[in-house]
Design brief:
five-stranded parallel sheet, Rossmann fold, four-stranded antiparallel sheet, elongated, alpha/beta, Arc Repressor Mutant, subunit A, 219 residues, 7 helices
Length: 219
């Protein structure tokens, strides 16, 4: 299951379907809508809207209407020939000119979603990591990570307090519970397994503080 859900508002149903399929290959779940009313009526949780149209004026209008109905970051997808006429796009958070590279679009989507505040507190975003609390899902760079229940709870606790160092004893008490009788080694084993799943050559999230414990890197 993709972590980010995108709605595509397009003047062309075929273009919208092709874009949704392309985004799925980059780890996004997509919905399509012909207008703002359809987009606003979608029951699924949405993280961003893409507006694909030939008219900058229509893109602005749709973006402003959508933000009033359902506040979402918006990226406009516009034909290249309109560039000389662009003097700003009120209501838009970003735009991309066609033909565009879907890989670049996916990076822009992630950047916007990750920097957009979520008032409901349902997402914990730490760099390329996103923890979706209602779904109990973790994604790194848009890739869903399979975690055990305890690994998820440990990661969620550390990520909720970036930069703060926790001793093994504290982690046992806060994540496993005060009635857990296992030793400190339990924490070390789970940290090692967690790192093997969420970290790689370009992602490092958990620091070992020698003779003390662990902390989530404060980016």
């Amino acid at each position: 299951m993709a972590m980010f859900r995108i709605v595509v508002i397009s003047d062309n149903d075929g273009d919208a379907a092709r874009l949704r399929a392309a985004l799925a290959e980059h780890g996004f779940a997509g919905e399509t809508a012909g207008d703002v009313d359809e987009a606003a009526a979608l029951s699924a949780e949405l993280h961003l809207a893409l507006i694909e149209t030939a008219s900058p004026a229509r893109a602005q209008q749709l973006a402003q209407e959508l933000k009033r109905a359902r506040p979402l970051p918006v990226i406009a997808l516009l034909p290249r020939e309109v560039l000389p006429r662009l003097e700003g796009l009120p209501g838009m958070d970003d735009f991309l000119l066609k033909p565009y590279d879907v890989s670049e679009l996916s990076l822009r989507i992630r950047r916007l979603v990750q920097k957009t505040p979520h008032a409901d507190g349902e997402l914990i975003t730490r760099g390329d990591m996103v923890i979706d609390l209602p779904k109990c899902e973790v994604a790194v760079g848009g890739r869903l990570i399979e975690l055990t229940y305890r690994e998820y709870e440990l990661l969620k606790f550390l990520a909720s307090h970036p930069g703060r160092v926790f001793s093994r004893e504290t982690l046992l008490n806060r994540v496993w519970g005060y009635d857990f009788y296992g030793g400190d080694r339990t924490v070390d084993v789970h940290i090692r397994r967690l790192r093997s799943k969420v970290e790689d050559a370009t992602h490092a999230f958990i620091d070992t503080v020698r003779n003390v414990g662990y902390r989530f890197v404060k980016s």
